[in-house]
Amino acid sequence: MNIKKKIMSAKGETLNREVHPNWYIDIPGMKTLILGSYPPHEDKRHFEFFYPNKINRFWKILAEINGSALQYFENEKAVEERIAIMNSLKVGVQNLGKVILRKGKSARDLDIQILEFQDILNIISRNPNLERVLLPGISGPSSTYYLFLKYLKLNHIDI
To answer: Which residues contact 146 (CB under 8 A, 6 or more apart)?
Structure first.
């Protein structure tokens, strides 16, 4: 359930409070966990799952690594196809943000503020075969890299 509440920032901008949809799938034997920040605004989604925009290259790259090609770009068939890729590659996907404030309908990490993180440590502890955590964004203070460092610090984990 995506609960929304409009809030005004100090600059007079509309910030929307959003709760992440429950999309996480525990992949048996997961070896890699890929962490994003937060999904795009629901108006920009073509299906209800991670990286749900047709123009995003994320799933096209994973499909290529898997030796396949994407066939579906909308609805449940797209979700099923992507879960099959995840199972084949032993790759899990989750976003760092559980509850966020979003500036308008922007999907830019700079326009998203995480209020509450997902329980990433629980995912890691439940997956003993996990070898790596991939953070696809490292380019700024709101990137997945810096957000993950913040999450670790909040959980008193030094790296």
So the answer is: 138, 140
Cα–Cα distance, 6 to 152 (Å, whole number)? 29
What is the rounded distance in angstroms from the CA atom of residue 56 to the CA atom of residue 76? Answer: 18
The backbone torsions φ and ψ at residue 61, rounded to the nearest 5 degrees and listed phi first, read -70, -45
> What's the rounded Cα separation, in Å, for the pair 95 and 119?
10
pLDDT for 8: 54
Lookup result for tokens 């910030």: 15
Two tokens at 41? 């605004």
Structure tokens, 29: 């034997």
pLDDT means over runs of 10, the chain (159 residues): 52 85 96 95 94 93 97 96 98 97 89 95 97 86 89 93
The radius of gyration of the chain from alpha carbons, rounded to an integer in Å, stands at: 16
Q: Tell whether pTM > 0.70.
A: yes
Under DSSP, the state recorded for 5 is E
